[in-house]
Amino acid sequence: MQPTTLYDKLIDTHTVRRLDDRSGAGSEILLYVDRTVLNEYTSPQAFSGLREAGRPVWSPKASLAVVDHVNPTAPRRVAAMPDAGGARQVSYFDENCRDFGIELLDVLHPLQGIEHVVAPELGFILPGMVVAAGDSHTTTYGALGALGFGIGTSDIEHYLATQTLQYRRVRTMRVTVEGLLPAGVTAKDVVMAVIRQIGASGATGYAVEFAGDGIAALEVEGRMTICNMIVEGGARGVIIAPDEKVYAYLRDKPRVPQGALWDAAVEHWSTLHSDPDAVFDREVRLDASEIEPLVTWGTSPDQAVPVGGIVPDPTEEVDAARRGDMNRALAYMDLAPGMAMESVPIQRAFIGSCTNARLSDLREAAAILRGRRIAVGVRGMVVPGSSSVRRAAEAEGLDRIFTEAGFEWRQSGCSMCLAMNDDVLAPGERCASSTNRNFEGRQGAGGRTHLMSPAMVAAAAVMGHLTDVRRLAQGA
After folding, report:
1. What is the rounded distance in angstroms from the CA atom of residue 399 to the CA atom of residue 26?
2. How far is Cα 127 from Cα 375, in angstroms, rounded to an integer?
3. Which of 19, 97, 199, 342 is the 20 to 30 Å CA partner of 458?
4. With DSSP H G I counted as helix, E B as strand and the rest as coil, what are the percentages for the chain, rounded to 5?
5. Which is nearest to 167 in space by CA: 333, 20, 327?
6. Sign of the CA dihedral 36, 37, 42, 43?
7. Is 304 helix (H, G, I), strand (E, B) or coil?
8. Distance in angstroms (rounded) separating the CA atoms of residues 436 and 348
């Protein structure tokens, strides 16, 4: 048999039928999708379509619904939404889940949180699954050995009605991270380094598999950060072969198989890997030892430099289109070529999002903040990725470290990642952020976002400007 990639193995085993005569990249198939996660923001039109057509949901238990985008994250949790639009979205979501028999974790539910944090916590996503959902960061689930990708509203409706999608195969890319990461360098830096190397559209049309010693050494939550954010490089699906770390992560989750079923599942999961001689359409390699803590300077995730570097000069860019993008980004960010990144002041510090708001992320940030205070003039916010993460952090005393340092300790939700609620930047405010996108206005109209790891956010908050976390870590 011809050696096969893990992506192709999962697509082949989930193919209901081919819809054209081709079998390679670009061919269309009817794809069986194991599970989806729904939110209040991207699902309304899909449910309206089902209602208008009089169609039921094919398998309600294959869907999990979570309120996460529009809800407030103020320290005291309430059910009321801050605006009429958000209130209507949440109300209609509740109505749809009730009428179609779908489990809903609403704002007041003890398991509420960001969908891409909650689903793995529950063991709702398992290795070998194909998962499609109405959020681009569904790629997060690749860290568990599942193929995850985002879909549009019409596709959500089709999935809910049939448990299938009309799907076009994509090309395959393997990103190999060789060697081990230096101290102070995190999974966030790895994925930012990949995006910086391949560009914001470098993985467009590809399913990406991450491999190498640098990936194997990461814990599962770090892998989730990488799988989550590589969509900012254009990836149309992401996967990492499951291993013992994945099995250990899943073992105590409430919705995983039990007893003999667990043993059988692990036996099968151990077969989920690309064949040794499998050929990928593109290979990308990084040396882990050369990766440094990174920060973005512009308005695209690939516009990043090491924190000890300087703002680049557009006149040195030979490509006219990229040069124009750089000039526009510098004008929006109010930065000048040659500025030291560590001289850039901040007014806000945000730790949260589906990229970096898990317990391990909060631990790393708290280690920097312990015994320190954030700078005068900086407002810091910590928004745990889920209510379960929040409780676990409080049990460890992390909340006290954050509040004693001057950060606000808030409830879970998407929060300032996308400014779809009342957590927003004011025009001109500059934010050190652990989120995934630094687009113009992403965190609020006129707001300026610098992406980095949670520990780097903590360091910037303490110093009042972008800072190499390794300096503070030495005294943490």
Report:
1. 49
2. 44
3. 199
4. 40, 20, 45
5. 20
6. positive
7. strand
8. 16
Task: Decide: 56 and 100 in contact? Cβ < 8 Å.
Answer: yes
d(CA 476, CA 60): 48
Residue 10's nearest CA partner among 160, 170, 137, 135 is 170
The pLDDT tens digits for 6-28 are 999 999 999 999 998 887 888 99
Range list of H helices, 44-83: 44-53
E strand map for 201-273: 206-211, 238-239
Q: Which of 329, 375, 332, 334 is nearest to 467 (CA)?
A: 375
Q: How many CB atoms lie within 10 A of CB 52?
A: 9
Provide Rg for the chain, Cα atoms: 22
DSSP string, 104-146: EE-TTSTT-B-HHHHHHHHT-S-TT-EEEESSGGGGGGGGGT-
Residue 342 has pLDDT above 90, yes or no: yes
Task: Give the per-residue pLDDT at 78.
Answer: 85
Residue 476: pLDDT over 60: no
Helix pair angle (387-395, 115-122), 10° resolution: 70
Element (H, E) at 326: helix 320-333
**Does residue 448 contact residue 332 with C-beta atoms inside 8 Å?**
yes
Cβ-contact 383, 413 below 8 angstroms: yes
Q: Which amino acid is at 392?
A: A
- Residue that the structure tokens 């989550």 belong to: 228
Counts of helices then strands in the chain (DSSP H, E): 16, 19
Q: Read off the tokens for 380.
A: 């810091």
H or E segment to which residue 153 belongs: helix 153-162
Q: CA 268, CA 404: separation in Å to the nearest integer?
A: 47
Which pair of structure tokens corresponds to residue 64? 């999990």
Chain Cα centroid distance, residue 384: 14
> Token pair for residue 55?
């169609």
Distance CA 274, CA 24 (A): 16
Considering the chain, what is the average pLDDT of its residues? Answer: 96
Q: What sign does the dihedral 237-240-242-248 (CA atoms) show?
A: negative
Q: How far apart are CA 311 and CA 335, in angstroms?
A: 7
C-alpha–C-alpha distance, residues 468 and 190, integer Å: 16
Count CA within 13 A, CB hemisphere, residue 166: 7
The whole-angstrom separation of Cα 315 and Cα 193 is 23
Tokens of 260: 């003999």
Which pLDDT does position 419 carry in this prediction? 84
